[in-house]
Amino acid sequence: MKTNLVFIHGFRGNNAGLKEVTEFFDKKKFNVYTPDLPPAGDFSMKSYTPLTYAKFVADYIKAHEIEKPILVGHSMGSIVAAATAERYPELLGDKIIFLSPISVKPARFFAALTPLSVLLPNRLVTYVCTKYLFASKDKALFKDVLAISNICGADYVSRIEVFKSAKFSSHYCINDFHFKQKSCFIVGDKERLIPIEKTETLARDLNSPCIFVKGTGHLMNYEKPKETAFAIKNYLRRKK
Predict the structure, then answer these.
(1) Rounded to two decimals, what is the model's pTM?
(2) What is the pLDDT averaged over residues 150-174?
């Protein structure tokens, strides 16, 4: 029987940002789904809250008739995954996986800066954010990530919708939600956005493994996609 995985991308992203990870999942063993979250693609919501994002994911699962999927949330997607698990546990499998998790709320200056960044030119924001979150020394890879991120940035409904999403991403964290699924935290050992020790603490509190992907920062989906996929599959193989 195949394992159903629903990958949930992060802020300023769309499903393209996770394709380099999902391509390492054997189609004979996994059904992989990568929805676009509002405001990416053609989607928007009247309000951007844990409840509306959770409902969006739940509606996607129902529409595609996905049986008991395991949610895999990256960055802001980890918040959405946690919110969905709290609100719709009956739709989901018994595990949930967080990549580059927003375990606690970002520092105050990030909370203020994230919504304001929407007012700046998209390419400038992409460059600054990528430079800060990118750990690799590979210049060619950095250019590739910028190119993908700029494509994602052109896929938003409107700046107003991005602003709403930005406020959501900076005001919530995984620790705000309560869910019954067994969780796994997968973190880059050079993570800069959320202090690693905060993620380790939350993982211990939830009796969850905290797996490190070496040589990568917050953008592990681009920097080490194969290793990230391996970490996910390795966790899924565990019986307990």
Answers:
(1) 0.91
(2) 78
